[in-house]
Fold:
Amino acid sequence: MELLFVTVIGAALSLGMRYIVPGRQTHGLLLVPLVGAAATAAIWAICVWIGLTFDGGWIWVIALVGGPLVALALALTLPKRREQADAELLERLMKPSAAAKA
Structure:
């Protein structure tokens, strides 16, 4: 049950990351929160696997800081990569093809 709670809280915190970082028009509404939720759940599972208890405070801190940080990293890198990929695609599409020359 705690995994469900921490995943929902991690998604909510990651949703905030979407609105803090500029460039949110380059990706979908749910991408950053879903990545944050998945990272929070994965971090929680890793913490349980290494021996932290469900009722301990550190497992909550680690998971609820780590997941949104992953979402923040995605929200910072995705707009730059998207703009670069769009510019490369536009350049490739603007070049005349061999069929058009004939």
Summary: The chain is about 80% helix and 0% strand.
